[in-house]
Amino acid sequence: MAVKTQPVTVNLGPQHPSTHGVFRMRVMFDGEEIVDVEPVFGYLHRGSEKLAEERTYTQIVTLTDRMDYVSSMLNNQAYILAVEKLAGIEPSPRGVWLRMIAGELQRIASHLVATGFLLQDLGALGTPLIYSMRERENILDLFEMLCGARITNSYLRPGGVFMDAPGEFWPALDRGLDDIVRSIDDLETYLSGNEIVFSRTKGTAVLPQELLINASITGPMLRASGVDWDLRHRAPYDYYDRISFERKLHTASDNYARYWVRVQEARESVNIIRQCIDQIEPGPVRPSFDDVPRLIRPPSGDAYAAIEGSKGELGFYLVSDGGIAPYRMHVRSSSLINLTLLRDMLIGGQFGDLFVTFGSVDLNMGEVDR
Amino acid sequence: MIGLGLPRGFLITLKNFVRPPVTEQYPDRHVGLLGAAKEAGMNPVHFLFKRPGDSIKAIAGLATVPVAVTQSSRFRGNEFTFYEDRCTACASCAKYCPLGIIEIASVPGQIDAQEGESYKLEVFDIDIGRCMFCGLCVEACPYDALHMGTDFERSKYVRDELVITKEELFAAPKRPSAFYRPQFEEKRFDPFQETIDDYHNAGRHERPSDEELKRKWVDER
Amino acid sequence: MPEAFLDNSLWRNIYCVLAGDSSTCAARDYSSGFFPAGMEWLAFLVSAAIIIFLIVNAVLGGVIVLIWGERRLFGRFQSRTGPNRWGPFGTLTSVADAVKTMFKEDLVPAEADKILFNLAPVLIAAPALTVFAIIPWGVGTYVADLNIGVLFIMAITSLTTLSVLTAAWSSANRIAILSALRSVALLISYEIPMALALVGVIMLAGSMSLGDIIAAQGIPFIIVQPLAFFVFFIAAMAEMARAPFDLTEAESELAAGYLNDYASMKFGLFFLAEFMAEISTAAIVTTLFLSGWKGFDPIPSHFWFGAKLIFVLFVIIWFRMTLPRLRVDQVLKFAWKGLFELTMINIIVTAVLLAILPNPSTSELWIMAAINWPVAIISIWGVSKLLGTAPYSHPQPDPNAPSYPVGSESIPTDAVLGAEPSNAANQAPQAQQEGGN
Ligand code: SF4
Ligand code: SF4
C-alpha cells in the first residue's frame, strides 16, 4: 500500500539562528526533501543607495562599511575606486599599497567567517566557528591599529587612506600573517580530512558551470566550478598587476569545492600581503588637499568600478551631476546576485543540507538588502 | 566514514583544550592565588600568611583584579575629547558629520565683537546616541580642537542623556585618541594611561594667541 | 523484606535502622528501630521512599554540576573561559539558570493539545530517572539489581522517543514534527546495533544483570570487546541525540526542534532529562565496559565509579565539541550499513571464541582481547572504506589565461570559460545522485 504523503510548508526565518542575518525562506518539504523554496528578503534594507544621494563623496565611505559588514575594507576599496575613476583622482602609491594590504586582510577575515559559519551550519556546535573567529579577531586588531575601528573601518579616502600605518603595525602584521597561516593549517587539518564534513558537502548543491555564468555569479562560487575568473587577475585594479599570485580553482562546483576555494584563497591572500609588504614605498598616503579637496565635485558623468570582493565582483556605479553628492549610486552587490541561484541549489536536496548550501554561497544580508 | 581525518580533528580540539583561553575578561578578571599575590605585589607564600582571608577568597576562585584595556591608541571611542581653547567655532565638524548630529551655535567673542573675528561657543552638542564613530568630524577639525575619545562606557537609561553638551565635554577627562592625530603617535602618548590636560600639547596647529589676533586684526588694520 | 535486598548495603542499612531487630536483620546488631514489629512492610516502603529521594537528588545535583562542568569544558575546547562569574569558578551559574528558568513565563501555544503538551515533559523526565534504579554506584550501592538489567535499560531509554513525539505532536509546530520524525528514525535505527553490541557483552558475562556483568569483568570489557564498545558508544550517543547525531535538536537547521514551543520549567524538564540521559549513558558505559566500580583496593569503589564516569562524560563532551552533525540519511545509512555489520562480526567472533574457551578466566580474556583487537581494527577500516567517499583531485588553472586591463571594452566569451567548458556540467547529474542517496 502506498503511503499517502503531503508536502508541508515551513517558514524558516527571519529570526532563525542560521540564516546569516535576517532572511526568510518558505520551504516546502516532502519528508526531508526540499520541493520548493521561496526566498523572502529585504528585512535589512536601510536604503544606503538613496542615503548616498544626500552625502558627500567622503561621507559615503561610512555607508559602504555597513553594506557587507564582514568585509568593510573591500567595500571601501570598491567605492573609492569608483570615486577616483569618476573624479579622475590619481591615488598616492603608499595609500594604494596600504589599502591593498587592508583589503587582503579583510578577504582573509571574510573567508574565515564563511568557513566558520559553514561548519556551524554543519552542526559543529561552535568549535570551528570560534577558532576562525579567534583568528579573525587578530585581523580586526590589526585594523584597529590602522584606523581605530574593527568592523566599520572607514579607512579609505579618495586618493588613498586617511592615515599611515603606525610603527607597531608592521611587526604585528608579520606576526599576524604567520599566525594566520598556522591557523589555516589547523582549520584544514580539522576539516579537509574530516570524513563527516567531506561526506556532507561532497556532491551537494552542484551547480553547472553554464548556469553559473548565465546567472552572472562571481567570486569563489564561480571559481569552484572551474571558471578562471578573478578580477584581480583579469582586470587588475590598484597595483594587482604588480603582484603574482596563484588562482585556485576547483571543478566540482559543490559545497566542498566552494569551501575549499575559500580556504585556499585565504592562503593566497597571505602571499599577496607579503608581496605588498615587500613593494610598499614611503610617501604620502593621500594626495594633498590642494589636489583632492575634502569636498570633491566630480565632473558630470558616470563611472563604474569593480573589485574582486570576498564574495564576488563588488561594483559601484556612480553618476555625478557635478555637485558635491552623487546623483545616483548603485551597488552591484555580489551577495544578492549569488543568491539568485538559491532555488537551483536547494530544490531536490535534503533539509539537513539547506543551511549548509545557503552558507556555502557566503551571503551577507547587509549586502543583499543594502 | 571513519578514517584518519576524525582522529586528527580530535587532536586539534584537544590541542586547543590545553592552550590558555583567549577570552579577555572585562571589567575584571578572576584570578587564583598566584594572580592575587602578584596583584598585591607579594610572593604567594608571603601572601598566604599575611592575608589569609584574601588567600582563601583567591583559592575559592572569588578574587578579581581589574583589567587594563589593551587597545590601539587610535581607537575611536565615544567620549569625544574637546579643547575649548583651540576651538574657533568654525563648525567644520558639524558640516562634515554624515549624520549631522553636532549642533553648534556661536556668538561673536572676545576680541572685537562687532567685527566678529573670534567666536565663542554657545552650544556644542554631540548626539552620541546616533553617532557612528566614523571620526570624520575629527578629521575635519582644522585646529585639532576635537578628538575622538578612548572610553566606551556611556550606557544610559534615557536616550536624551546620550547628548553630550559643551559642559560635559569641558569637564570630561582629556584622553584623546590618536585617530587622525599623528602628533600623539610621534609623542608615544598612551591615552589609556595618561591624560593631556594642557591644550598646548594637543595639536599641530596652534590657535594664534589673543595678542597676535589683536595685532593682526585690530592694530594692523 | 525480600531476601534479595540484603546483599545490597544501601537497602540493608536504611531498612534495618528503620525496622529495628526484625528477623531479617537479626544477624546484625541494630539495637532499636523506629517501627514496631509487624510493621516491616511500612519500614520497607519508607526505606524505598528514602532511597528514591536520595538517588533522585543525587542525580539532580549531578545534573547541575554536569551543566556547569560541560559549559566550562566547552569553553576550554573553544579557547574560552566558560562561565566564571557567579560563585566560585562559576559553579552557581547553573543554579542561577535554574532559577531563571523557573521564573519565566509558561507559554502554551494556542493551537496546542494542552493535555499532551503538559504531559510530554513529565513523560521524558520519568524514564530518564528510572534508568538510575539499576545502576550500581559502588559495592552494594544500587536500588535494584534486575536479572534483566540490560533489557531494562534498552526498554526504558527508548521511551524517550515517545515523549519527543508527544511533545512535537502536541505543540502543533511543523518544525517540531520534522524533528520528532527524525527522532523516531534515529531510535529505530540505533536501538538495533545498540542491543546487538551488548549481545557480545552478555555472552561473555553469561548474564543480563549489571552486577554479574561487573563481576565477570576480570579485565574491563572495553579491552576484550573493542568492537562492541565502539558500536555501543556511538549508538548511545545517537540515542541521547547528542552531536554528531543531534538531528532532533539540530540547532542550525531546526532551531530547537521539538523544544521550539516549550518555555519555563517545561523546557527545564526537557533540559534536565537530556542531561540525566547523558549521565545515565556514561554510567552504563562505565558499568558495561569499564568494569564499573572495580579498582585498586585502598580507594573506595564509589570513587572508582565516579572517576570513570567523569572520564566517560569528558569523552562524550569531547565528541560533541569536535564532530559536525551527520545528515539524516547518512545517520541511518551509518547505522544499518556500518554499525549493524560491525555488531554481527563481533557476535560471530565472540561466539567462536566462547565455543573454544567457555567460562573464560582473566588470562583467557586477555587472549580474546588479543584476537578481538585486530578483528576490530580491520573491520572498522573495511566498513569505513565501504561507506566513505573518494577524495577529490584538485585541478590547476591555466597559467596562460590572459588578463584584461581596466577599460578594455570587449572581453571574448571563450576566455571566460575555463579550459574544460562542459566538464562540470556533465558531472553534475551524477554527483547529484551521489549526494542524494
Ligand atoms: S564621529 Fe562621525 S557620526 Fe560621530 S559626530 Fe563625528 S562625524 Fe558625526
Ligand atoms: S571643534 Fe574644530 S571643527 Fe568643530 S567648530 Fe571647533 S574648531 Fe571648528
Explain this structure to me?
The complex is a heterotrimer of chains A (370), B (221) and C (437). Chain A is of the alpha+beta class and 370 residues long. Chain A has 15 helices and 8 strands. Chain A has helices spanning 48-52, 60-65, 72-87, 93-121, 127-147, 169-191, 195-201, 209-214, 220-223, 231-234, 255-279, 334-339, 342-346, 351-360, 365-369; strands at residues 8-12, 24-30, 33-40, 156-157, 160-161, 301-308, 313-320, 328-332. Chain A has a 3-stranded antiparallel sheet. The longest helix of chain A has 29 residues, at 93-121. Chain B is α+β, with helices and mostly antiparallel strands. Chain B has 9 helices and 7 strands, in the order H-E-H-H-H-E-E-H-E-E-H-E-E-H-H-H. In chain B, strands 4-5-7 form a 3-stranded antiparallel sheet. In chain B, strands 1-2 form a two-stranded antiparallel sheet. In chain B, strands 3-6 form a two-stranded antiparallel sheet. Chain C has 437 residues and is mostly helical. Chain C folds into 2 domains: 1-103, no CATH class; 107-385, no CATH class. Helix content of chain C is 64%, strand content 0%. In chain C, helix 10 (226-240) runs antiparallel to helix 12 and helix 10 (226-240) runs antiparallel to helix 14. The N and C termini of chain C lie far apart (58 Å). Chains in contact: A-B, A-C, B-C. Chains B and C meet through helix 1 of B and helix 2, helix 13, helix 14 and helix 15 of C.
pLDDT under 50 segments of chain A (min length 5)? Answer: none
> Helical residue percent of chain B?
25-40%
Q: On the 0-100 scale, what is the average pLDDT of chain A? A: 84
Helix/sheet category of chain A: alpha+beta
